[in-house]
Design a protein that fits this description.
Ribosomal Protein L9, domain 1, 4-stranded mixed beta sheet, about 150 residues, 3-stranded antiparallel beta sheet
């Protein structure tokens, strides 16, 4: 039986994939659980149109992310932190401060998509790098400078 998967099924296929399975597996497990639908001609046409529209939307999002990546690529963020007289920071600089600094520039980036490229936490004044994931295919490395307030 030909089916179209509504969700990714382990060892079977990815979402929106057309696969062939045994009749009992499809009727007794996949279709009742809402993991798949039977691939009739009308369902195939609707599925093709949905995939086409989703690809178009995905392309627009990717282009927007690439534009933002080009803008952020050569920028250096400045993050102020309270420090001691020796240059040690009270606490540490993390992705929350980076997300807030990017938001001040006018762009919203989720802090979960930011990775600081150091082995340890940032506890001293200096220049560091972070990787920002803007889209599943687009990421950018950005420099940021931590200075004493």
């Amino acid at each position: 039986m030909n089916i179209i998967l509504k969700e990714t099924v382990t060892k079977l296929g990815q979402k929106d994939e057309l696969v062939t399975v045994k009749n009992g597996y499809a009727r007794n497990y996949l279709i009742p659980k809402g993991l798949a639908v039977q691939a009739t001609e009308s369902v195939k046409k609707i599925h093709a149109e949905n995939v086409k529209q989703r690809a178009h939307k995905e392309e627009k999002l990717k282009n927007a992310a690439m534009g933002l990546a080009k803008f952020l690529e050569n920028k250096v963020l400045k993050i102020g932190a309270k420090t001691s007289s020796t240059g040690k920071i009270f606490g540490s600089v993390n992705t929350i401060q980076l997300a807030e600094a990017i938001a001040e520039k006018g762009f919203v980036v989720d802090r979960k998509n930011i990775t600081i490229l150091t082995d340890e936490s940032i506890k001293e004044v200096g220049t560091y790098k972070a990787k920002i994931k803007l889209h599943k295919d687009v990421s950018v490395e950005m420099s940021f400078e931590v200075f004493a307030e």
